Amino acid sequence: MTHSVLASAVNHPDAINPYIGLFNQRIVQSLMRRGMDVDVVSPRPFAPPVGPHSEYSMLPTVEEWDGYGVHHPRFFYLLPKRLFYGRAGDSFAKRVPRYVEKTFDVPDVVHACHIYLDGYGMVDYCERHDVPLFVVSHGHFMNEYDELADDVREKVDETLDAAEKVLCVSDALAEKAARRVPRSKVEVVPIGATPSRYPVERKAELREELGIDPDATVALFVGEFSERKGIPELADVLPDLDLPNTEFVFVGHGGDEEWTLRRALTSSRFSGRHVYTGITSLALRRWLAVADVLVLPSHAEGRPTVIYEAMASETAVLSTTVGGIPEQVEDGETGVLIPPGDTDALREALTELAGDRERLLEMGRKGRERLLEQGWTWDDHAERVYRLHREALE
């Protein structure tokens, strides 16, 4: 039995920024593969005719993306965000459901890929049509709930109250969500990765293509070049590290700490030739297959998608004891975990791991086994979501 779903996702790749919200794209694709009939609405702010962000004025209202249509109705998103984020939610809630009413049949389920803006903007629509609302918590609005502006926090609470289920990507987030709503409304629904998409068997060939020594230890960072992702700690330790035959690769998508990182590399023994600020998903999967260890010294997380991707590509993980990361990484077995912000621990762990490539290879193999044992794949994700949708509908 199938059912129809309206997926609401402000963060979804588009022609202007093909890297934003890739995990939401994976969610949509997994639901479609499970047989659900999915329409996708990914609103975009009104853009100025010239100046910064004016390129978004050229984005079409409907865009084909990997075989399905993505709709981009407009709403008002004023800056600075810290002052006007609540107003953005009001505009979303007013304008986007109006577009949905005119464009789509009423779905069986609304699946909001984030609590806010995606979920909040569809609350009234769901109540008006008696449609269950599912909202996904990836981390931000639970981890930083107390720091939210008062009006945004009220909107988050309203959304959580209205939701049929709050789908949390980690146990740690589920515990926080259960402080806001009855525990019966909270479900842990991990996202994941699909091992067959990562060309691990081509590791030697890819290293040759990329000019990487076959015996080198490759340490890979993937994420925003920001304080939250631990770039300042990496910048602190890089100039002091003496790791023969080690290559660092940095794949990012913006962030205020990019030049901090580049300056640190200039002062270090390592090359800055592998700092990338925008690569395709295919290229990223290749780097994950090439790498020996993913380095992610984050300060706050849910369960990072890139750790699932590292596990799928048999890459060990060096990360921190925050959020849901300890749920993903078995410390000492599939990776190594250190306290966030601890530069000494980061330096020591990098030195130890870079010098023991056999241990990294074994951790990587165990990581892939754990991914499959726990059902942390996109097909497993879709199966869990399908079951919860059906329970609500039946």
TrEMBL record:
Keyword presence, Magnesium: no
Organism: Halogeometricum salsisoli
Keyword Glycosyltransferase: yes
EC number: 2.4.-.-
Superkingdom: Archaea
Protein name stated in the entry: Glycosyltransferase
Keywords: Glycosyltransferase, Transferase
One matching Pfam family: Glyco_transf_4
Occurrences of domain Glycosyl transferase family (ranges): 204-370
Domain Glycosyltransferase subfamily 4-like N-terminal, first and last residues per copy: 26-195
SUPFAM superfamilies according to UniProt: UDP-Glycosyltransferase/glycogen phosphorylase
Annotated GO MF terms: glycosyltransferase activity
